[in-house]
């Protein structure tokens, strides 16, 4: 298993170090893991003048999977757009053709009281959000800021989805639904956007190949509401890039903290990039208080989806559950009566449980 490890910026280095401890523990148990580190985001800019340096691109292309921390930091906010850390992320996703982003929102019973929603609304929650990652308004051309004939300035972007882009992500969605509860809700804004009307038409067509899966459609505004009203009605949610960006962050809060949520981004051969759903959290970077569990759980997803190693994926997940059951909590998920620990100590607790 050849893994490119890209810690990135902010808390990225701290949380990836904890996931590395877990992988090291598996390695000492005989699991064949090779890792190599590279720079991305602000770290890429600092080391090579580019948020996605060529050496990193080569490393990522040659690896079977990528484990990434996060990118971004205040010090890079004034750089020209092409040099900003987020460009590194967009380029690696595009370069590796990682079009399918999987974000599970799963509530561990121990954390039911850490959610801002009532425990009865979220207890037992287990949703998979599948977000298309390489198309939509985030990549559509033309875009920019222009001056109109009347002299007024205007910002503009372009939303589009081609049939093949919709089809391939819809297939991934139906295949995931087949392995779960055979229910998928496709989320769009078909009452207003032509792109969404087309999305709905193609998803409905692909559904014919998966007669066992119950497909429903929902407008994104309603989905945002239903996610906090009755989130357990969902199993798999399939949606486009911009809606998925927002809904998956919303879903993350159902589970108590964004620090708990892993993610996988896959290409058509299940090569994947695995990263926590949160950002580089510059406000808490370097303080040893970040929650490393989303990153550790991302490593578990890597074993499951790219390396087909269900046994060790489940081992990592059970170790996380055990550390939580033993009462260990980082600040973001801390509640009275539990034991507050730092990032490092949480990593150690998971390794001990493993
Ligand atoms: P963020 O996810 O970094 O932080 C949001 C809030 O959640 C902050 O209060 C932070 O302290 C907290 N938080 C995040 N992860 C945590 C963890 N593991 N443990 C405990 N608390 C955690 O989002 P933001 O503040 O909007 O963005 C900060 C930077 O990250 C920006 O530069 C942004 O562009 C970048 N960003 C990167 C990614 C990525 O790398 N995938 C995603 C989102 C944002």
**How is the biggest beta sheet arranged?**
10 strands, mixed
Largest sheet, spatial ordering of strands: 2-1-3-12-11-4-5-10-8-9
Alpha-beta content class: alpha/beta
CATH class categorisation of the largest domain = Alpha Beta
- Percent in strands: 15-25%
Gyration radius, in Å? 20 Å
Cofactors and ligands: nicotinamide-adenine-dinucleotide
The CATH architecture term of the largest domain is 3-Layer(aba) Sandwich
Averaged pLDDT, please?
A: 95
Write the CATH homologous superfamily of the largest domain: Isopropylmalate Dehydrogenase
Secondary structure: helix percent: 40-55%
- Large-scale geometry: globular
DSSP strand count = 14
Cα end-to-end separation: 20 Å
Helix/strand order, N-terminal first = EHEHHEHEHEEEHEHEHEHEEHHEEH
Alpha plus pi helix count: 12
Write up this protein.
There is one protein chain. The protein has 354 residues and is of the alpha/beta class. Helix 10 runs antiparallel to helix 11. It folds into two domains: 1-99 and 271-354, Isopropylmalate Dehydrogenase; 104-266, Isopropylmalate Dehydrogenase (3-Layer(aba) Sandwich). The model has no long low-confidence stretch (mean pLDDT 95). The strands form three sheets. Strands 2-1-3-12-11-4-5-10-8-9 form a ten-stranded mixed β-sheet, with helices on both faces. The chain has twelve helices and 14 strands. 48% of the residues are buried. 40% of the residues lie in helices and 19% in strands. It binds nicotinamide-adenine-dinucleotide. Residues 11, 15, 70-73, 86, 89, 258-259, 275, 278-284, 290-291, 294, 332 line the site of nicotinamide-adenine-dinucleotide (NAD).
